[in-house]
Please model this.
Amino acid sequence: MSDSNSDDSDSDSVQVTFPAKTIARLLAENFTRPETRVSASAVETAAEYLRIFTREAVWRTEGALKAAEAPVSASSAPSSRARIMEASDLEKIAGTLVLDF
Amino acid sequence: MPSADMDPELQNRLKSAVWYTVGKIVDEACESLGVNVTPQYTAALTELVYAQAVTLATDIESFAWHAKRKTVNTDDVLMMCRRNEGLKDVLEEFVEELEERKRSAKASKAGHN
Model:
């Protein structure tokens, strides 16, 4: 219930998101019944859902990486500044991410 | 469940479109976090997002039909977040803003004509 307006709405420019056309097609191709339709608002909301999912994946990867690094860098010399996240880092958080969405 | 029956050519085109946007969202997030990703990271994330989109399609279709509708609406998408309170709040806010925008667009159109 916490008010988290600071999260999204204050970003200056327009948010990068999935084009409605792409999402509409992707959904339509994966519906199992030929009669199923989808409203324009539902397509936009689906795009937003996938945008949040994508961004959350990056944030969680970074969070997990930071958590894993912390005890090491406390005892040894700090490693290089620029952290590079790899596919294997994504794999570590993918399971819980999918469960949460 | 990857759609085995989908035209592979079309599937490739859709995946490329998803990859492009995933790349942009990743860049944006990396900038605010001060990190970098390998191209393999973005490729793996694209696969994950694509798979999630396929699941999304079948789920929202089921929710609509369960409600005895043949047209998927925003409620069906919100149903996806039923187990995640934070996500539900964010997405509900998005839907409200979307409806507000549509209402004011309609109102200004009516005012000018």
